[in-house]
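RETRY 2/3 - previous attempt timed out on the joint model. Re-submitting the same 224-residue input unchanged.
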Amino acid sequence: DAKTTQPPSMDCAEGRAANLPCNHSTISGNEYVYWYRQIHSQGPQYIIHGLKNNETNEMASLIITEDRKSSTLILPHATLRDTAVYYCIVVRTGANSKLTFGKGITLSVRP
Amino acid sequence: NAGVTQTPKFQVLKTGQSMTLQCAQDMNHEYMSWYRQDPGMGLRLIHYSVGAGITDQGEVPNGYNVSRSTTEDFPLRLLSAAPSQTSVYFCASSYSGATKEQYFGPGTRLTVT
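RETRY 2/3 succeeded.
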């Protein structure tokens, strides 16, 4: 599976949009981009995923560049409860697909 | 639905002891997996199962055994605990494979002395 690169940390003000970048320059055509987050010591939580089109759900938006080599997770109105480690993961399709977690990016939302 | 449940929440073992971490899900998911997370690190896949009777190794399988006799349960056995297995263990399940949304349990904190 393609590897991803994320900055180690970032912060944003409460109520503002949080834009979390991810590079996956070696992604293949059959690999999806997934985002999970882990709020202090809890099990990871699925946020969103996409293949090549931009995606939006009630939690976030995912913007994937046209060449698919990078993506951005957008939390439109960050709250203090969004403070967490966010993992960008590339996953190949297939029955034996696996999630490979890196260190993620620590998002700190400040009041 | 209870989702994914894990027991126990905390466990302390002595080196050489064996134990089983329990994981159960009530969502009729085919895919289940076990991860470990060491301090300051991301999760690493230990073993996974794509359905009852089928298991496979992940990234760090040594020292652990799994079996999947039912769709609901996916226990993780530590054969002879070592201090290097001190970690937080998470179980997850999904409808089918890692390309579907995975639901994670609350974790088991294991300390091996």
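The longest strand of chain B covers residues 43-51. Closing ticket.
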